Amino acid sequence: MAESDQAGALFVLSAPSGTGKTTLCTQVCRRIPDILFSVSYTTRAPRPGERPGIDYHFVSKDAFERKIKADQWAEWARVHDNYYGTSAEFLEAALAQGRIVLLDIDVQGAAQIRERYPDCITVFIMPPSMEALRSRLEARRTDDAATIEKRLANAAREIAQKDLYRHVIVNDDLQTAVDELIDLVEHYRRAVPAAGKDKSRF
By the number of CB atoms within 10 A of the CB, which of 10, 105, 129, 142 ranks highest? Predict the structure, then answer.
């Protein structure tokens, strides 16, 4: 089903590691309780503390590859011998019901989503500066120096694609960024008909 025939709205958020995208998504979901957060699928094993269906849907490699052949992923990628993907069935069912869906995804996945759902609302979360991003990554104390440099190099490549997104939010102050994102969601939300009533394009 093409997204342009659906009543809902699909928000796609991308950001470099350390920019605060996960925190932003969490805050938006708390303040807009009826928003649906799309949980990704993966073939890797759960890490300590990860909860199936909350952090990821954990599936077998065979099951994932069957869905690739059946074109049942809205986007997917293979990273370090593990698959990651977003269920097209979930997105299309939610959008057909007039729901607001939030998707936290990298720039490669966002490109696939834009192709399949051209009406999606894409948002790129920017750090205030590369220096600030370096400070945030170092403050986390979870990566060594080489990993931080790799993350910064990846961030530069991702930021170079920010103009492909409809909206850009700079996460300098977390609360301000949360408010901006919620205002953006509410702006589009007002254009979405009530679920189950008018399925026209917004």
Answer: 10
Residue 197: inside a domain: no
Is residue 122 within 8 A of residue 14, CB to CB? The reply is: yes
CATH number of the domain within which 57 lies: 3.40.50.300
Work out how many domains the chain is built from and give that number.
1
pLDDT in tens, the chain (202 residues): 344 444 689 999 999 989 999 899 999 999 999 999 999 999 999 989 999 999 999 999 999 999 999 999 999 999 888 999 999 999 999 999 999 999 999 999 999 999 999 999 999 999 999 999 999 999 988 889 999 999 999 999 999 999 999 999 999 999 999 999 999 999 988 876 544 444 333 2
Residue 183 within any structural domain of the chain: yes
- Per the structure, the complete domain to which residue 49 belongs is given by 3-189
121 with 9: CB under 8 angstroms?
Answer: yes
Beta-carbon contacts of 77 under 8 Å, excluding residues fewer than 6 positions away, are 83, 84, 85, 108, 109
- Edge-to-edge order in the sheet of strand 167-170: 36-37, 100-104, 9-14, 121-126, 167-170
Given the structure tokens 């309780």, which residue do they identify?
A: 33
The DSSP output letter for 158 is H
Element (DSSP H or E) covering residue 183 = helix 174-189
Report yes or no on 200 lying in a domain. no
